[in-house]
Every structure is written in structure tokens, then in C-alpha cells.
Amino acid sequence: MEEIMFPNKVKSLLLGLLLCIIPGVLFAEGFAESSSQQARSRYIANNGVILAPEDIFVDSYLASYNYGYPEPETDVGVNIYNTLNRPDSSSRNHLGREGIIQVGLQGKTWGFSELPPLNLVLVVDTSISMNEDNKLYWFKASMGNFIKKIRSVDSLSLVSFNNTARVAFEPTLMDSLQKRRLFLEAVDKLYPQGITNLEAGITLGYEQIIPNFRENSINQVLLFSDGDEFSTRLSMAKAHTGDIRISLMWNNRNDLDLYVVTPRGEVVNFKNPRDSSGGWMDVDRNMYGETERPMESIFWAENTAVFGNYRVYVQNYAINEPRDYPTPFQVEIKNGREYLYFEGAVSGSGRSSQTEVCSFEYTGADTLDQIYQLVELRKQQGVSISTLGLGSNFDEELLRTLAEYGQGASRSLPNIDVMNGVLNTDREFQRIMVTAAENLELELEFTPGIEILEVLGFQRRIEKNRVICRIPSLHQGDYKTLFVRYRIPPQNQGLQVAAVQVRNQQERKPIIVPEIGLYTDGNTTPDLPSGFNRVIVLTDQTNDFAARMLLHSRAVLNFAETIREVGNHYYNNAGDLTRLETALRLDHEASRILETTKRSLQYDNAYYPELGILAKYAELLNDRIGENRRSFMNESRSRMFYEDGGSFSRMTQ
């Protein structure tokens, strides 16, 4: 094996994995779960809600953006983009020149007829909440086209779950029209009732697929759910999550309160909503008996929870119901990645009503729930799971983590059109179904002396001058992206920036490819050696192609940062007219940049979702600014009236 070294012209290397070296800059990763988050955020924003700044993850948004990597000729393409800023006379130039390396993985999209046989179990939530917005109908309607694409070599099964789970359609090879008709009849008989027992549904789904496991096939569980009552209320309340989340739910207008005693002896409740370690009561309902579906929640963000024993109590602060009956309640505890559930009831009010719920030990975020252990076990047996969240109130973290452990993908389906697109478009279907590569590790080793300034993207760690990324799986047609910003100091202006390697994570061997193809502006010329250990990235001038990519990427980055900054101005003292006007100005500027970029790149349909969100934000901001101005005028008139001894009143008599 030999080492390949070359400057960053617009070219691609094909080595069983395709490597494209193109100057340019894009951003962050495109891992599957980010697609779910991006779709859900768009849905919320387009429905008249300005997202809070803590709910905007620029890293994840940029990661989920489809930059249109070249379609690889092999299973996976690895695209490397690099650019180095031109020297200038700015005050920062004495620190050295800054550059950007971006690595994008692209799975090849095969024709549906070329895929291995499918052995699928569709596990469908049929709890009563699936009746809201006709979500169960979405599933039924999408199955008509879905069954048409299923081939005679494919096997299907259907499991429904609410309080319990049942097999609605036994595992069947779909090799006749009669079997397809029976499958659709089983789908049509599904109806919503009861609550959501997710574990029962997943367990029964695996029980259908394991006895019918097929070698050289895609064996997968497809889970469809809109979440349970806890996830629905938490989502509606915009509750946060992290290392620990403790949530209280009840079903009347009484004002129940959640109390948590931390290992340090601090109490987190409505009187003391934050503790010294970062614990925060971010949801507190029914102070005025305003709802019959209340929720309270306390959370510790990632890497903030103190190890030790936590004690949970519930107390009724005030009785808002006409009769003083005991109030039943439920508590959900997210302890790392383990979920615990408790039930109880409180009687009376005040201190005498305080009821101890439980205590638990927090030992770190790696604690695994039983359902995750099951998913991990089935993955080792060759069965994956992909999760599809319907609507906007499902537990996104739960479904995403299930897919992570199950070597699948996670998607948000906010409406019936998106659901049809995911299930009945070959490329999107393959992005959740078909694995192109597993257990890869990508390493960027920077030349000594080069400073790593920022890293965004899929799972990674930094070890001195190396950025190492773990890629458990990449699905066909899917994409992942890594973004590294670096600085070359003035005393070290050599040609070599970094060495890039891709290897099998388990064997720790470089990937060897039988042949290499070189791409130049989309044309293939196989004129390079037949293998390499690593690719050396050199500094050179950015060409016109890379400049267009850079322009595109900056517009995307500016949009993501603007959305976060608008949320910051909107929610931090929203009564401040100056802050609202600043937010509106930022919104208009981001729209202008997107429109200008679209014209420059001649992308007529580019940035349609982003421009739609900015337009909705502008509408909401203008409404709030108008309300604040009217309120200010009314207050001013009121002050003048009282200062003048009621002269306004006398003038109108």
C-alpha cells in the first residue's frame, strides 16, 4: 500500500469507499437522528412557534442538511473538502491563517429491485392518542402505495400495541395478490384505544422476526409511534431533558407540586427552581387550575447531574377542584438511559399532603434501560430497528436512542405527506432500511503545530492533534458530515494540513480498495494507483467550484445561527421593544442572504423551507412588536391621565 498526496483540486478518489477531495466548506453532520430533529423543528416553527435558543442545536441542524454529495459508484463515498483563507491585513492575521476541512460520507442509492430480500415487522402504536390529527389514518393511507413496492421475495408482519401488544398479521412471504390484500385488510382493522405500552410492542415485534430470521436479507423492525401521554405533555410544555429528568403528571385542576432532594441535600421545587449543580424546574403547571392535563418537570442537563441518591416527593399546594378527593398521579424518571415509572395519590393540601414517591441512585448517563438492552441484543443477532415518530409530541430522544442502539435510523413524520415521502420514495426508504457500511472509524491527523479551533459533526473525540469519529452504520442514500476549523500559525506555513484515514473500527485496519476512480467535474478517469493507506490534504487556492460551495454553506450556517439568536432575543425579556426589533432585523438579514445566495448560485428552489420559517418568524415578531407598541401607548396615556388629575376623563364628558 502506498500513500497518496495531492493538492485539493475538484477531484474524487474511488477505493471501495469513494474519496473526493474538493476545496470548500460545508458544516456539521448528517446523521439519521438529526433528520428527525430538523423535520420536527421545521414543523413547530411553521406552526407559529418561535423556538427557544436552548432548543436550537446549530451542530445538529448543520449535520442534517443535505449538501448534495456526489453519488458514489461504490457502497460509500467519502468526500473531503478543504479551504484556507487568503492572507489579509486584519488584526487577527498575526495568529496565522484559518482553514476549514469538511468530510462528508455519502451512501450509494441502489435501485429498489437490487436490494436484498426484506424481512420486515411493522410495529404500530394504536393507543387513543393516535386518533388525534388522524395519525393512525396516515399509516393506513400510506400502506396502499407501500404494499405495491413490496416484492414477491419480501416478507411482512404487522404488530399493533396499546395497553398490550398483538399480532395483527403473521409473518408472510408476499408472493401473491391474495396475501397483499389480507395485509391491507389487517391494516384497515387497526383502531385507536388505550395507552401506549411501547416495550410490549417492540418485544412482540422482535418475537415475530427472530423465528423467521432470513440470512442474506434485511431483517428489521419498523416502529411507528406518536409517543405516550408523558411524552405528549412534555413536548407540549417544551420540557428539556438531559442526564436526569423527573416528571409528574395528574388529571385534574389541583396544583400538585414536585419536590426533588439532591445528593447535596438541596431541594428543587417551585420555590427553588434551580440548584447549584444545574438542576432546573422548567415546567410548573396549575398554579391557577388552568388545565385538567397538567405536568411538572425537573431536569439536569447533560454532564451536570451529581452522582448519588435523589429523593422524589409530591405535594398538593392548593385544591382547585370543587370536591376534596384524593388526586392520583404518575411520575416518570429518566435516570441516564433508564426509565422508571411510579404511581400514587395525594390527599388534602399543604405540608400534610406531602407524599414520598421514591428514591434512586444516579451513577452516570450510561445506565441502560431494559428495552435498550433488548435492542442491543437483537442487533447482535442481525435484527435492526428504525423508529418513526408521528406528529410533534413524541419522545424524540427515546426513539432516536432506540434507533442508535438498534443500528437503524430515526425519522420525524409531522404530517401524512412526509410519511408518504419516507415510506414510498426509494431513496428515503433506503435511508432508514438498508445499511451501506458498519463499524467505520474516520481519523483526521493534523500536522503538529496546527491548532484545532472547532469541531462539529457526528460522534467524535479529540486526542491532541487528531479528530477521531466513530460511524456505527451508514445507510444507503444517507449522509454524515464532519466540520473542523483549524489555524496554521505563521511559523508553520507548510503544504501539508492533515492526513485522513478510514478504517474498520473493529479490526483497526485501513480500508483497501481494488480500484480507484478519479472524478474531475463529474467525469471519471481511473488513472491513480490501486490502493492507499491515507490521503494527505494540502493547502492550495480555492477554485470557482469550491467558492460556490463556500457561499452556499455560509448561507446555511447564518440561517441556523440567526434562528437561535432570534429565539434568544424573543424569550429573554420579550417586553423589550429594542430586542424584538433587533430580532426582526436579524430575520430580514438572514432572508436577504438566502435570497442573494439563491440568485448567485442559480438555485431556483433552494432554501424554500428556511425562507418559509423566516417569513413565519417575521410575522410573529411583527405581531409582538405591534402589541408592545400598543401596550406602551396605553400605559403612557394612563400615566398622563393620572398625572393631569384625570383631564382625559373630563375632556370626554
Automatic annotation (TrEMBL):
<dbReference type="InterPro" id="IPR002035">
    <property type="entry name" value="VWF_A"/>
</dbReference>
<dbReference type="InterPro" id="IPR051266">
    <property type="entry name" value="CLCR"/>
</dbReference>
<dbReference type="InterPro" id="IPR036465">
    <property type="entry name" value="vWFA_dom_sf"/>
</dbReference>
<feature type="domain" description="VWFA">
    <location>
        <begin position="119"/>
        <end position="261"/>
    </location>
</feature>
<protein>
    <submittedName>
        <fullName>von Willebrand factor type A domain protein</fullName>
    </submittedName>
</protein>
<dbReference type="Pfam" id="PF13768">
    <property type="entry name" value="VWA_3"/>
</dbReference>
<dbReference type="Pfam" id="PF13519">
    <property type="entry name" value="VWA_2"/>
</dbReference>
